[in-house]
Design a protein that fits this description.
Layout lengths: L2 E10 L4 E3 H5 L6 H7 L4 E3 L7 H16 L8 E5 L10 H8 L6 E5 L5 H14 L6 E8 L17 E11 L4 E9 L7 E3 L10 H5 L5 E3 L1 H22 L9 E4 L4 H11 L10 H4 L6 H9 L8 E8 L3 E8 L8
Parallel strand pairs: 4-5, 4-6, 11-12
Antiparallel strand pairs: 1-7, 2-3, 6-7, 8-13, 9-10, 12-13
Amino acid sequence: MINAVITGIGGFVPEDKLTNDDLAKIVDTNDEWIMSRVGIKERRVLKDGKAMSYMAIRAVNNLIEKTGIDRESVEGIICATSTGDYHFPPTSSIISFQTGCRNAFAFDVQAACSGFIYLLETAANFIRTGRYKRIIAVAGDMMTAITNYTDRTTCPLFGDGCGAILLEPTTESVGVLDSILRTDGSGLPFLHMKAGGSAKMPSYETVDNHEHTVYQDGKVVFKRAVTEMADVASEIVERNGLRKENIDWIVPHQANYRIIDAAARRLEVPIEKVMVNIQRYGNTSSGSIPLCLWEWEPKLKKGDNLILAAFGAGFTWGATYLKWGYDGSNT
């Protein structure tokens, strides 16, 4: 049976940082307030008129340079983002052209902060068909482009970043072994962008009212995220006959440290086995899980059991059971 395995990973975060002290000069907040509620110390910001594709191109180039693959051997590039350069064309088409992957088909997927979980299963299925040998899945967001810096409740949350993975076929018992994807469309009122789509077209009024930025009912989203991320992670662990002793790493979406801690406690996994970089990058939406894998790659060993979990607007959420395919220390 053909399965899809991650054989390489790349990433990119901008150099510029926005600290809590910097935010305190913009809006009524402080370091203690932010750290106690979400656990974020600083976040990266893409400046100088650059867009999401700028980060994605660099993440893909990093991946290709590390793996040494021929760019023209890449058969598909799929991008998960909520902050694409344009409504159309797909950002993936810009990425494929600018990285020299001229033979790759390209399209985007959008599942908000759960984007990488949905992307990973989608890309893996192209490999499982047996028709494709090399698919690059890239996920990231330029969240600072849609952040309202007059809203003290949401502006501390978001940062910019992007990760990319290479998926190839294997007959070994490694790779993307199982996924659970869930959606509850009743979550629309609690987390969305009010204007900019066909439901509410852009106007002077929508711009003046900051309706092209993230709107969130924090209490509702927090409660659902804690419940759903923990539940779906627990479900995929039980479905695959895993025990807490078998889990090498939990890789959660980096939305809020309290949500991450709650999911780890539910699985009875020590925090030392949980990938956490929210304090340095904030919530990079679909980019958060691949950025964790990119950072922790040197610590990953072939055969490690990873549980990935995310929750985002839609409401969308899900979990993936991933068995790592190579020794990261050798890259």
